[in-house]
Fold this protein.
Amino acid sequence: MMKNIAKLLTVFFILFFVGSYALADTIKLGVAGAHSGDLASYGLPSVKAAELVVEGINAKGGVLGKKVVIWAEDDSCKPELATNTATRLVSKGVHVVMGHICSGATKAALGIYKDMNIITISPSATTPDLTQSGNYPNFFRTIASDDNQARVQVNFALNRLNLKKIAVIHDKGDYGKGLAEFARKFIDQSGKAKVVLYEGITPGAVDYSAVIRKIKRKKADAVIFGGYHPEASKLVSGMRKKRMKTIFISDDGVKDDTFIKVAKKYAEGVYATGPVDVSKNSMTIQAIKDHQKKYGKDPGAFFLNAYSATLALLNAIEKAGSTNYNAIKQALHNKYVKTPLGNIRFDKRGDAVGVDFSMYQVKNGQYVELKE
Amino acid sequence: MMTESFTETVLYFIELLLGGLTRGSIYALIALGYTMVYGIIELINFAHGEIYMLGAFTALIVSGIMTLYGYAGMSVFFTAMLIAVLYASAYGFTLEKIAYKPLRNAPRLSPLISAIGMSIFLQNYVMLAQTSDFMPFPSLIPDFECLAWIDYMIGGPELVILITTVIVMIGLTVLIKYTRIGKAMRATAQDKKMAMLVGIDINRMISITFVIGSALAAIAGVLIASHIGQINFYIGFIAGIKAFTAAVLGGIGSVPGAVLGGLILGLTESFATGYVSSDYEDVFAFALLVLILIVRPSGLIGRNEMQKV
């Protein structure tokens, strides 16, 4: 028994050395995120995305003539594990990192990558701070930050609809309240309109008639609501039954077909922000098809974002002509790359240009993207 | 604060008042079922909210089928209501036989746990058998034409809920006070052994209580769902908690108490939202509950332990 284990270990070590030797002249791509635990469904699609991209690129001769290899490391979305994950990836000598998945874990790991001059692109960390604080020049992302959505809503309300009095309502949850706070801030900063009412409602309450009466009393032109569709449909139908024509603007949590199904005729005319529609992009269609072929099912959350992040990283190395930190950074900022999310590059803070929210409106029982 | 005319201020107050009354009667309608069951076997039937939800789901299915066959208007409403009541009563009856009757002589905590268990079971049953999504509920109660001039204050469904609550409360009071069944129920509530000795079938009385309670829950479910316009498997829990609070506020076990408690709770929430902020809606509601229970531990109209129902 012991002998067998010893043999196994020997074989393992030999393979390991052979492995490292073979890896000497490769581009090492670190993939970090939640690959186990209850948030694994957010992280695993990104590993699959990286595998698909790398497979395709290696088949075409790799990057700078070298093969690309993936080092996947798990952080379970926990900040305290993420620093270990980052250290392990650094010790493996990765050139760039695609990850992490959760904002908290990403923040914890970023310091280590920054010290080691490693460029990192997250497919899913949306906390505005990560790019806006300016603390992490090595950080990029292929997802719009949380405040973007509020900015799109406010710009739309102020510049397209020219509204003056806005009621900001939220559902007291992290997501809804976070958005509502940004919306209020942006409206105040603009100086063009006034927030006449700012309130949280209790999700699941039997009705919102008192809040609706308050909106009416404050003579708000529009409601910006941060939250999800069950509350939104109660608010909208309540207002319409009271014959109020107040414009209703909401978020990705409401841009859901269930909202239209439940609110029925009252849903008509409601605005909601959602990610720019990329489902007709030929690369998107191809990426999803490849995933179905290889893994036998539809891709999971953030798949396209991770796919685009991997493409952006490898493309930047190719364009930079080396794995030099500054050269990659310059390439990410300046060179456009074709991805399933569209033709993207990154602004000076690290947010992807062109990856954004757009405004949708319910017309004839369907959400229709409103063109700028 | 912008200036507004005196009429606007008064109108705003009336709107809040009516909104509070509607909300209150929603709570009261559900609270009546809680209070009846507690009155007779001193059990807080936590699965009551789920019966309410089952009633709403039954009505949704029935009205869906009827609409498919081309029926419309009030006939759908009444048929859906009738079937929902029958179905929910059957559930209430079975629930008592399965989950509470075997535990009638067990310590008081056991049936309570059993009730919570049934509540979780029924929720998950509906989630698996139906859907976990929110479903649109048809507005079975039309907006009456003659109400059009005040519909910014109170709509058809709201008025129907208000009136139904009053009718149900009066009906229950009459039933309990003046009928043979009511007398037998009161006797069962006061002393089960003694009631048996004078020839009352207490099992039957308890079953009847559950059937009536469940029927009320189903009526509430159908009315409220068609007022709100959406249901899912979880609505019973949230409505149940508020209704339970209303029942305790008014004095659990007392029929007028449940209605009074519901109305006070609804009005408090409405005015707190209207004049302060909806962020504190629940804070005001529960602060009021604590205050009332400090002054009157058995609720507003709750009398001493011996006289219930």
Summary: The interface with chain B takes residues 172, 199-202, 204-211, 213-214, 217-219, 229-230, 233-234, 237, 241-243, 258, 261-264 of chain A (CB under 8 Å).
